[in-house]
Every structure is written in structure tokens, then in C-alpha cells.
Write a structure and sequence with these properties.
Blueprint (H helix, E strand, L loop, with lengths): L4 E3 L3 H8 L12 E4 L4 E8 L2 E9 L17 E3 L10 H6 L1 E6 L1 E8 L9 E9 L5 E12 L2 E12 L10 E3 L7 H5 L6 H17 L4 E5 L28
Parallel strand pairs: 4-10, 5-10
Antiparallel strand pairs: 1-2, 1-7, 3-4, 6-9, 7-8, 8-12, 9-10, 10-11
Length: 243
């Protein structure tokens, strides 16, 4: 799964990286601990050209009566996204990229022989080349009581390679050579596109050179903590690593 991530790059840098011709009206602040329902950047296709826009993280289906379940719809399983009523329309026509510096995942580790209660150690997972990750996403536009709300979700898959030792799920990452097909709302076979992305993903990640991971402070457990220090690597035995 992906329940928290970092997104500190500004709109101009992301637009340049993703080849977006249109930018949002205003920049989002840099965030080092993006939590559900936060506004985030998304890359979408606008009539054949890429646009960088803003969406609230946590999908609200267009037919939903309210937004109460949005914080539970931050992820969509790639195995069932084409068939689930909440996601299938967006999967067919409203696919996006969700840029991230990297994301956090929690590994369950034992404490000591005297205290067998498990603890969850956060790791920061990032691209080894230092560039942004392009996570596969879906977006929807919902007519709420206060106006239109654009929201998004991030697709996940079974973890492979070194990442599987941290957590059993991971985001779907869209390789650059697949960006156009993933974003193209006219693509007639999105299942085939997703299958190709998953195959390429798993080959890259299993090789161990695409992504890196290191432990970070449990300060990231609190969404109110949002500063660059969250990205600093720690040693797991460091007593100063606690919240």
C-alpha cells in the first residue's frame, strides 16, 4: 500500500520533468509527510497534452453521496481496479500520474526477547537516481455541496525484491516510456497497458537498482510532523529515532 509520501518539488520543476504544458493556478507547499485528504499534484492528459493539476488524495466516486469514505480510498488494488464499481470508470477514462519524492512504508519488527510486542519501523523508499517517482493513479470529479472536488487514488501491487521484506504491497510505478499510454483516455485496452506496466515494474524492482530504502524516524507516524528532517536516514537502534 501507500499511505504516506513526500512531495516537495514545486510545480515548475514537476512540469518540466513530466513535460506538462499547463500548470495549476497556484503552487502547493512542499510536503514531506503527505497524508490522506491532502491536496497533491497529479499529471493528466488534457486533449492530447499533459497538464499538472491538483487533486485531493482519497478518491470520491462521481456517484458518491458524500466524501466520508475518501480517506479509505487512497489506494486501489491493481488486481481488481478494472472491476470495482468505485474505480472502474476512472480506470477506463481518468488515469493520472502522482509525482512523489518517495513514499513511506512500515516494516513490522520484533522488539526484544523480553518485550515481544512488535513495532513498526518506517522506511523511506525512493528512486535511486534522485528523480521523482511517477505513481499510477486515477482521478474523479465529484459535485459536492461546496462545488466540484477533484480527487485521486494510487494503484498498488504485490511487493517484489527487496521491498517485499519491508511490506507486502507497493505502489504501481509508471515507466517513462508508458506515460503517454497510461494517460491517454482514448486507449482502448487499459488492462493491457496496466499489465505491461506491472511487468516492467517488477523486472526493474526485482533487479534492486530502481528503488532504494532506508529507515527513518518514527516522527513520520504523526501527520502533523512535516519537515525535511523526516527524510534523514537513521540507524534502527538509535534511541533518538522515536517520536
Amino acid at each position: 500500500m501507500c499511505g504516506r509520501y513526500a512531495a516537495s518539488r514545486d510545480a515548475a520543476e514537476l512540469a518540466d520533468w513530466f513535460g506538462a504544458e499547463e500548470l495549476p493556478r497556484s503552487d502547493l507547499p512542499p510536503r514531506f509527510n503527505v497524508a490522506p485528504t491532502t491536496e497533491v499534484y497529479v499529471v493528466i492528459d488534457e486533449e492530447g497534452s499533459r497538464a499538472l493539476g491538483v487533486a485531493r488524495w482519497g478518491l470520491i466516486p462521481s456517484w458518491s453521496k458524500d466524501a466520508s469514505r475518501a480517506n479509505r480510498m487512497i489506494n486501489a488494488r491493481s488486481e481488481s481496479v478494472a472491476d470495482k464499481p468505485a474505480y472502474r470508470a476512472a480506470f477506463r477514462r481518468r488515469r493520472c500520474l502522482v509525482p512523489a519524492d518517495g513514499y513511506y512504508e512500515w516494516q513490522v519488527v520484533p522488539r526484544t526477547p523480553k518485550d515481544d510486542r512488535p513495532v513498526k519501523q518506517p522506511f523511506f523508499i525512493h528512486a535511486t537516481d534522485g528523480g521523482p517517482l511517477a505513481m499510477a493513479g486515477l482521478y474523479e470529479d465529484w459535485q459536492g455541496p461546496d462545488g466540484d472536488v477533484r480527487s485521486c487514488t494510487i494503484l498498488t501491487q504485490d511487493a517484489v525484491g527487496p521491498l517485499a521484506r519491508i511490506h507486502d504491497r507497493m505502489p504501481v510505478f509508471v515507466p517513462q516510456d508508458q506515460w503517454d499510454r497510461w494517460l491517454d483516455s482514448a486507449e482502448g485496452d487499459p488492462r493491457a497497458v496496466l499489465e505491461g506496466i506491472l511487468a516492467e515494474d517488477r523486472e526493474m524492482i526485482a533487479g534492486g537498482t530502481f528503488l532504494g530504502a532506508y529507515p527513518v524516524s518514527t516522527r513520520v507516524n504523526r501527520p502533523t510532523n512535516d519537515d525535511p528532517g523526516l527524510l534523514e536516514p537513521i540507524t534502527i537502534s538509535d534511541p533518538a529515532s522515536g517520536a
